[in-house]
Inverse folding.
């Protein structure tokens, strides 16, 4: 079961929701409005190799925020 990140344009709240299958309706926990269509790209970390100091190299994807809005 994936955890999706949503953005509410009305109250500018970003929140996560555990979704079973296709989400029928996701409501903002702040203002209770339907935000099902405002799913964001969540940040994801990837560790694939070690750098010269022996530490894992990491890369993260973009995340939604009130400044960038949904994607």
């Amino acid at each position: 079961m994936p955890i999706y990140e949503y953005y509410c344009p009305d109250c500018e709240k970003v929140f996560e929701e555990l979704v079973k299958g296709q989400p029928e309706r996701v409501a903002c926990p702040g203002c209770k409005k339907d935000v099902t269509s405002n799913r964001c790209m969540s940040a994801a970390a990837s560790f694939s190799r070690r750098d010269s100091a022996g530490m894992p190299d990491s890369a993260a994807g973009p995340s939604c925020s009130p400044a960038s809005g949904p994607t």
About this structure: The chain is about 0% helix and 35% strand. Residues 25 and 36 are 6 Å apart (CA to CA).
